[in-house]
Every structure is written in structure tokens, then in C-alpha cells.
Amino acid sequence: MTLFSRLPFVRFTVFSTLLLAACFAASAPSRAESITAPEQPQPVLDCELRTGACGPWKFAGQTTYAFANSADRNHAHDVFRLWADGENAYVGVNMRWDLVRLMSPPTSGPLGNPLYECDARNAKCELVKMDDEQRVTHILGGHGDDRVAEVETYSGDSLNSFEPSYARSTDRGRTWSTIKLPTACTQRASCTFAFPAPHRYLLLVTDILDDSFDAWKTRIFLSNDDARTWSPLTQGEGIAAFGWNAAITAHAVNLVQGRDDGAKSIVQIDETGKTATLLSNADQLRGRVNLLLAQGDTLYALLDSGAYPAPGARLYAVKDGAAAAVWTSNENAGRAWATPELLAVETWDKNEMIASEGEFRTKLHVSTDHGAHWRRYVMPNELVNSEVTVTGRRIWAVSGKGIAYLDVR
User: By CB count within 10 A, which of 57, 107, 128, 320 is most buried?
Assistant: First the structure.
């Protein structure tokens, strides 16, 4: 992805959010935390991951690159790149955010950006790759020993990446080869890459059509032979949608079609290029769709109204041409994940600031029955604003304090 691919998920800064919260707290309506209210796990907040006494969270290792300042806590989403599979998590580290190291580099040792593989069974992390200072490896997916990664590229002392490339490894990340793409990824042609099944790659290229960034079209390409050949699934300039919030499965791509200021629909493009409409009027969702998720034959749409006039987030199940809310919150939604066994939504609470971390309290809302019931996990202090991913029923998180996982029962 390029910088623009992150825009729909950018949070307010602490100070801007506090200002908005102070202005509108009095008028914020009281809303249910979720559609259902089952028994919630007792949170353990002030704990140390390394001791193993952090409630349901288990310590899974620590990278040897410890930051000399607080950037790894306050900018975890910028610093860490996380992907997991079974007992192992891969953590890419963007050392460009270590400002102290950047200004006073050590006289010996590598200065690049490392990629680690961390094993939950022994809580140890192994260095598997070292990029130079201009590149950061972010693993996007894997099957067997195959791994596919986005290689972010940086210039000079900039913290913004540009024109990414993609790479493939057949030995669990030890050696890599560049993936040949059917078109270039640039700042105005933002790419989303997926590895949904063995040997199958999908590339979504969202072209920005004007300087306002309000108009775009997305081209979709499919490869069934590890990128030796590519076939277009869209014609011409593509479909009037952007790929940043798409739900990509092994056999289809689901997108929100239409501009934000006009009528919208949710469509599905299958592996043959055939387009079907899943929801003809997405305006009934009452807001901008931040993210689409796919679980079986059901699609989920995550919406967040932001801080004005009142924060609020909703998750809709989209099926058989209709949408129904399965989760709501009066907090702001960050990200969401779907596996065959689990739905998870991250929220952050503007009413609770963690002084030691300089961040708002974050929570994970989890369902194991397709949204019928929800359980809430309050993130401990050492994992506030951490980078998170989900595989099966296991939730992984990484912060400057370490890598941890939680198994949802």
C-alpha cells in the first residue's frame, strides 16, 4: 500500500480528540455498548507481559531492537508490521521511528529494519531478514512455507513510504524474490495485495482521478501461478470504488461502489470477472464504510461516525441483499478482523487516558457466533494502541513491551 491506503483508518491525535471530546461530551447520547451484553472477562490492566501475569494475554517474545524513546508506544502502528499464522508471528520493525538512534547512530552493528519470527511455544524471536534503512518488510499472508510481503520504500529521512514493491519467500522468510506486477504502484495508483490461497494472488490498484481524492477507480488483477501471469478482472479504468477497505477472499473481491457524496452499493467481483450486487443501497448503513470483512457467506461492514456530533461505531451483517446491525458502540472504532472462527473489532475510549502510555484505552470486542453475542477484552496498559492481528481464535498484539497473544475460548 502507499501512504494513501492508510487514510480511512487514521486516528485523531490525542490533543485534537480531547478538544472534540470536551466540546461534544455533553450532547453525546447514551447508546448500548453492544447488541447483546454477555458476561465480560475481568480486565487485568497494570501488569507486565514478561511475567506471564497479564490476565488472558501470554508473552510470546521480544525483539532485540528496543527503542530509546517512547515512539514504539505512541506510534505502534507506524513502527511495527504484524502477521501471524498458528504458533508463529512475524514482526517487521520500522527503525526510522527511533529518533534517538537516528540522530545518534551507534558506531557498530546494523542500522537497517529487521524482520523477526516469534514462536509462542518458547517465547523467543529469531531475526530472519535485515532490510536496509530505506525498506521495511511487512508480511501480508502465507500458506505452508510460502510468504508474501509488501516492501515499503522510504527516501531520505522521510517517515512516509512511497511506491511499494512485493516479494515472495518459499522458506518462511529467509530468502526473497521480487514479485512481478502487471502495473506500477505509485502515490496516485495505490495498491492492495492479497495472498488468499496457495499460488493465487490478487492485486487491487486504486487510481486517484483528481486532486481532491474524492474520485477514484479500482482495477483488479488475478494470478493463479505465483505471479508468472496476470489476468484483469475489471475492464478499462476499472470499477468506481477504492480497494483500501475491500474484503478479499480466495474466490472474490467485495467493494463499496460509488462516491461518498452519492448513492453507494456493495458489489462482488468473482474470479471470472463477473459482478454481482450484494447490497443495492448502502446508504441504509448510515455512514461511511471504513472496512468490509468476509466470514463464510456473510459480509460485514464496519462504520464509524467519528467524533462529531457524537462518536459511534456499528458493524452490519450483509447477506441476501439486506443489512442488519450486529454490534454497536458509543466509542470510536479503529480496526476489525474476521476469521472463520472469530469476529473482532477494536475501539478506543476518549474518556480514559492512560497517563503512562500517553494513549486512550483500547478494547477488543469479540464474537465467536457470527455477531450474536460479544465479549469485551480491555487491553492492558502495555498493549494499549498496539498493532493487532487475528488468526483462527488467536489474537496477536505487539507493542514496544513485547509480543503477546490471547486465545479466545
Answer: 57
Place of cell 450474536: 372
Grid look-up 493487532 returns: 388
DSSP for 164-191, written as a single string: -EEEEESSTTSS-EEPPPSS---SSEEE
List for the chain the helix, strand, coil content (%; round to 5): 10, 45, 45
> Please, which residues have CB within 8 angstroms of residue 10's CB and are 6 or more apart in sequence?
none
240: CB partners within 8 A, 6+ apart? 216, 217, 257, 258, 259
| Cis check: omega of the bond before 309, within 30 degrees of 0 | yes
pLDDT of the chain, 409 residues: tens digit per residue: 543 333 333 333 333 433 334 333 333 333 445 555 455 566 778 888 888 778 899 999 988 765 544 444 557 888 899 999 989 999 999 988 776 555 555 555 557 899 999 999 999 999 999 999 899 999 999 999 999 999 999 887 778 888 899 999 999 999 999 999 999 998 889 999 999 999 999 999 999 887 766 678 999 999 999 999 999 999 999 999 989 899 999 999 999 998 665 668 999 999 999 999 999 988 788 778 899 999 999 999 999 766 555 668 999 999 999 999 999 998 888 899 999 999 999 998 777 777 666 678 889 999 999 999 999 999 998 888 899 999 999 999 998 889 999 999 8
Q: Which of 162, 161, 135 is nearest to 149 (CA)?
A: 135
User: Rounded to 5 degrees, what angle do the CA atoms 21, 26, 29 make?
Assistant: 95
| DSSP code string of 263-299 | --EEEEEETTS-EEEEES-GGGG-S-EEEEEEETTEE
What is the CB neighbour count within 10 angstroms for residue 45?
15
H/E element holding 310?
A: none
Say if residues 240 and 258 touch (Cβ distance below 8 Å).
yes
